[in-house]
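Hi C.,

You asked whether I'd gotten around to modeling the 137-residue construct. I have! Everything is below, sequence then structure, no commentary in between.
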Amino acid sequence: MTQRTLVLLKPDCVRRGLVGEIIGRIERKADWGITALEMRTLDRSILEQHYAEHVGRPFYEPLVAFMSSGPVVALVVEGERVIEGVRQLAGPTDPIAAAPGSIRGDFGTIVRENLIHASDSEESAIRELKIFFPGIS
């Protein structure tokens, strides 16, 4: 089943010069394609929409501060089972728990600065894509 997902390459990914490496990993997957890509610095209003379910949690303000600390690369990735696949490619949030070969397993250092965001379900992907790429239906 062809799906569409949002991928964010976070400020630590951009600062560390890993954007090309990670985009290359996505592009090398046989049936996946990048259909939109944009580098931008996220403002608080976008982050409040994106992380609405986390408001009030202890990590919310540090997360918003981190995500607005520098540019991100936002991508729309399409393909067969891409939502599940990109999350597998990213690996668990904790880089110590992430397997070698995953993005976080190979490049992750700390939990909060974990290089990549990928939508966790079809519902999340639809909601997140509307926030970051409102012109794509």
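If it helps when you're writing up: The chain has a mean pLDDT of 95.

Thanks,
B.
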